[in-house]
Write a structure and sequence with these properties.
single chain, about 350 residues, mainly alpha, two-stranded antiparallel sheet, 17 helices, globular
C-alpha cells in the first residue's frame, strides 16, 4: 500500500509539473519569440532554428523550444513568494515575472549553443545542432547575442526588481562559465575528485536553477534573505538535476534523448557517476580508468557503462540525487514555511529528478 501511495503521489506531481510547464510555455513563448525576432537576420535565423520554430531552410517548424524548466521555476517561485496579505492575485504576480522568465530562458539557451560547440554535440532535441547546420562561428555569435538580449530585457523592464534580477543573472553566468571551464579541464586531467566534480556541477547547472528561483522571488517582492534561500533551493535541486542528467547521458534511451546511447562515455566525460566509479577503489573502477585512458569504440562504451554500474557509480548518483532533493526542501522551507504554497516548485523538482530524458 505504501508503494502504491508513493507511486500515485509521484504520478500526480508529474502531471502537475507537465501542466505547469505547458502553462509556462504559453506565457513565455510569445515574449521569447518577440525577443528572438528582434535579432539581425543571420542571428535570427540561427536562433529561430535552435528554438525549434524554423527548419534549416527557414520554413516553419513545430519542434518546440525545450521543456521550459528554468522559466517555470521563475514563475512558480513568484507565485510561492507572493505576499498573501497583499491581495495580489497569483496571475498578476506571474504576469509581472514573465520578462524575468524570458531572460533566464535566453541565458540558458546561450549556454546550450556554446555547450554544443564545446562538446561537439551533433544532436539536440532530436535534430542537428545549430553549429552543425550554420557553422561554429554563427552558433557562438548567436549565443552571445541571446545573452545580451536577456540582460537588455531586464534593463528595460520597469519592474522594481529588474535591476537586482539583472545583477543576479550576470553573476550567475560568470559562475556558470567557470563551471563549464572546469568541466572542460576535467576531460584532460587524469585525476578528478568527487568534491571537485560536485563543485563544478553546482556552478554549471545549480547556479542557473538557483538564479531562476531567486529571480522569481525578487519579482514577487521578496527580500535578500528569502531570495538567497530560494537560490539555495534551486542549487540543491540543480545538483540532483545534474546527477539525473548524467545518468541519462550513460543509460538514456536515444529515442527519448535525441542523442546516441552512452554519448557521455564515448566523449570520456568525467560526469558525476563516472567520477564516483573512478574514485571507488574497486576493480571495476580501475577497469573504467583503463577504458578512459584511450579512445573508445561502441563495445568499449558498453563495457564502460557496466563498469560504472559495478563500481557503484549508478547507485551513488541515484542516492545522492535523493539526498540533494531533501536538502533542497529544507532550503525552500526557509523562504516558504508553509510548503503547501510551494506545491508548484515541489512538483517541478520532483519532475526533474524523475525524468528519463
Amino acid at each position: 500500500m505504501a508503494l502504491m501511495s508513493a507511486h500515485t503521489l509521484a504520478r500526480g506531481e508529474g502531471q502537475e509539473a507537465s501542466v505547469l510547464l505547458e502553462r509556462t510555455r504559453g506565457a513565455v513563448d510569445p515574449e521569447l519569440r518577440r525577443a528572438v525576432e528582434s535579432l539581425p537576420g543571420g542571428m535570427r535565423r540561427v536562433a529561430m532554428y535552435h528554438f525549434g520554430w524554423e527548419r534549416e531552410d527557414g520554413g516553419p517548424a513545430q519542434e518546440g523550444a525545450g521543456k521550459a524548466i528554468r522559466p517555470a521555476l521563475v514563475l512558480a517561485s513568484a507565485r510561492a513568494l507572493r505576499p498573501a496579505a497583499s491581495g495580489t492575485a497569483e496571475e498578476a504576480v506571474e504576469a509581472a515575472a514573465v520578462r524575468g522568465a524570458v531572460a533566464v530562458e535566453l541565458a540558458h539557451n546561450f549556454t546550450l549553443l556554446h555547450d554544443d560547440v564545446v562538446d561537439k554535440d551533433v544532436r539536440r532535441r532530436g535534430r542537428p545542432t545549430a553549429w552543425t547546420v550554420f557553422g561554429t562561428a554563427d552558433a557562438i555569435i548567436t549565443g552571445d547575442a541571446m545573452m545580451a538580449l536577456a540582460l537588455r530585457l531586464l534593463a528595460e523592464d520597469p519592474h522594481p526588481a529588474s535591476a537586482r534580477a539583472s545583477a543576479r543573472l550576470a553573476a550567475c553566468i560568470v559562475e556558470l562559465c567557470a563551471g563549464q571551464q572546469a568541466d572542460c579541464a576535467f576531460e584532460v586531467r587524469p585525476d578528478v575528485s568527487l568534491d571537485e566534480c560536485l563543485t563544478m556541477a553546482t556552478a554549471k547547472t545549480g547556479a542557473l536553477l538557483g538564479c531562476s528561483c531567486a529571480v522569481g522571488a525578487l519579482y514577487a517582492g521578496a527580500g535578500a534573505e528569502e531570495a538567497d534561500a530560494m537560490d539555495a533551493f534551486g542549487r540543491e535541486a540543480g545538483i540532483a538535476f545534474q546527477l539525473i542528467d548524467d545518468l541519462i547521458g550513460i543509460w538514456g534511451d536515444p529515442v527519448h534523448t535525441g542523442k546516441p546511447a552512452g554519448a557521455d562515455l564515448l566523449a570520456r566525460k568525467k560526469s558525476l557517476p563516472v567520477v564516483a566509479a573512478l574514485t571507488s577503489g574497486t576493480g571495476a573502477g580501475e577497469e573504467l580508468a583503463a577504458l578512459y585512458a584511450g579512445p573508445m569504440s561502441g563495445d568499449d562504451v558498453t563495457r564502460a557503462a557496466r563498469a560504472v554500474e559495478r563500481a557503484g557509480g549508478r547507485d551513488w548518483a541515484q542516492a545522492h540525487a535523493a539526498d540533494r532533493m531533501g536538502r533542497a526542501v529544507q532550503e525552500l522551507s526557509r523562504a516558504v514555511p508553509d510548503l503547501a504554497a510551494a506545491d508548484g516548485l515541489l512538483a517541478l523538482a520532483e519532475f526533474v529528478t524523475r525524468r528519463t530524458r
